[in-house]
Every structure is written in C-alpha cells, then in structure tokens.
Design brief:
The protein has 147 residues and is of the alpha/beta class. The chain contains six helices and five strands. Strands 1-2-4 form a three-stranded mixed beta sheet. The protein is flat and about 45 Å long.
Length: 147
C-alpha cells in the first residue's frame, strides 16, 4: 500500500509503550522474555510511518505470492488453503494520520485498500484469515472482555 512516509527519516526512536504494556505481558512474562529475544521486538524502531497522502493498493507483490503459493500446492492434495492477511486495525496501529479528515476516514481508507487484497486471495481460490498482530502486544488493554 502507498500513502505513508517515514516521519523520522531513519532516526532511531523508542518503541511504543504499547509493545511493553498490557495484561498479557504481565501474565505471561516468561513467554514474552523469550519472544522478545527471538523477535527483537524490544529494540527501537527505525521508521515511524505517517499517512501523508491517499492510501492506494498495488497488487503486484500479492500476485507473486499467490502464484508462488499455487506452485507450492501443485501436486499436493489439500481440502482448503488459506493466506493470512493483516486486518485494517493492524495497519492503522502505530501509523499516525496526517492526511484524512478523521481517524474513521483513515481507517476506512485502509480497509478499502485492503479489500482489494482480500478479494484477490478469495478470487484465486483461497480462504483468507485476518491476523491482528497488535493484540499480543497490548493484551486486554485494547479489547472488550468479550473477545
């Protein structure tokens, strides 16, 4: 997707407190110590994305992924196959809006762009599975207790 610029132009910035907060991090501290060591998610980010223009979607890389996935599945018997995708809220998280008139308009623009990705995956004959990466980071601080 297009529409974002690097606010910090490569300068290191401290990681968002959301990465270190949340009930899950307290309840599963041993897991997160190991997870952070493996993923290095505790290190400072070098890019801070900001939406500075209209969000658009370029399907080029997805078409390559779909072709590679179909090739990998050739000659293999499977009932169903799926491709994971990012949920709109995952893309919005930690990317400030400086272009759209409201946060709602910004989130809808992300969803409209990602809709093209979801449709291409389904049209290729695969299931699509939303992945919300932010939930483990912020734990129950961001979600209703019914989730």
């Amino acid at each position: 997707m297009n529409g974002w610029a690097d606010l910090n132009a490569g300068r290191a910035i401290p990681a968002s407190p959301a990465y270190r907060a949340g009930k899950d991090r307290r309840d599963f501290a041993d897991f997160y110590r190991e997870y952070d060591g493996l993923t290095q998610s505790h290190r400072p980010a070098s890019v801070k994305w900001v939406c500075t223009g209209p969000i658009t979607y370029d399907p080029t890389l997805l078409q390559i992924d779909i072709a590679n996935f179909k090739a990998a599945l050739a000659g293999v018997t499977v009932e169903e196959a799926f491709m994971p995708v990012a949920a709109p809220i995952t893309v919005e998280t930690d990317r400030r809006n400086e272009y759209y008139p409201s946060q709602e308009a910004y989130l809808y623009a992300i969803a409209d762009a990602l809709k093209q990705e979801y449709k291409a995956i389904v049209d290729a004959g695969f299931w699509s599975n939303w992945t919300i990466h932010g939930l483990p980071r912020v734990g129950t601080n961001c979600c209703p207790t019914s989730i």
